[in-house]
């Protein structure tokens, strides 16, 4: 039996199908544009444990304190991952959270290789602690996203939580940017083990807001990653006001950090939003954009005196000094990768001129320098494969398509911005969690709005087979 796609929204944990006046089966109910919840359209309800775990994940990302345990100082997020890693791993191996996909294996491979690289460079006696933390922060955080976010209901709840986080954080960030004081860090220091404040020169007369993170850049990357997610995920439940408010709050938060990396991530997401809107009727718009980017890369490489990377860095930094420093980082960093190709240098010092600091402002390059090129290849591959599978996923309604766009825009913005910044601690864990939290969209069995409405009318039971194919991010 054929059917039209019916628009749907989430209301009180249910998938509600709106009948349009053109639906002949709607009868008199269509005239009043009433909303009828299909009996078989119930979305999976979250258990109290998953709700609590999602809440703790968001809280532990933005609350900066640590606990002293034996010889280790552990953050609450790491403690949470230590508790959950074994049951999550067994559940993953038994396919309780959906089928095992290539991104899973690549992240697992990267995590094991990075732990092995630390042991090779420093010995097992010295490396077992940092190797364990690295494994938990990468594969553990990724698996946490896979476990907690497995359906539309969980994603909607996560989006709502981080939207509330934006609302709470923004006034503190504005106050910090104007006055230079750090109220969040002072508040957290009362509980002990807080993050030390970072004193930096003002830019354009404003202080660089640090919020509750170790550095303004980390705060900015985190806030920027929330914009597309909240804007598109809440577009149905909060309509235009939710979309606009999400963009406004994220933009204010990123601007308060006055950091080029987060601003770059934000601008990339803005561009993708506008591009998607303008060319929404062009079916191959994303393929065309990818081809255009590759062509421009080769044009810059052939017809300019600077490499495409040098050109990118030049326009992605506030000052020529920062630009020059990042070019030197790339030069000496890639040389280190060539010299230590397989297992990197671990946590040791990378070779560089004496006038350069030890800070390496390139997240992707750090992975190759520390753990070797194979580790970088697996880690970057996990993101690229995940994005490709997201783009090719056959979705069933407009809401899932918007969620998909928010996921991709956020990840792409963060991945490109990470070329000029480094991520660590909470921001690194959040990135891996976010990647894991997107996998359900192409592995989960979500109720289709039109299909469940059709099943309700015909009296058939919900199909548990392969989801219907309807929409791709072409």
TrEMBL record:
GO terms for molecular function: ligase activity. Residues 451-474 are annotated as: Disordered. The chain crosses the membrane at residues 52-70, 76-93, 100-121, 127-149, 161-178, 213-235, 247-276, 288-305, 371-390, 402-421. Residues 247-379 form the O-antigen ligase-related domain. It comes from the Bacteria. Keywords: Ligase, Membrane, Transmembrane, Transmembrane helix. It is found in: Membrane. InterPro entries: O-antigen_ligase-rel_domated (IPR007016), WaaL-like (IPR051533). Its main location: membrane. GO terms for cellular component: membrane. This is O-antigen ligase family protein.
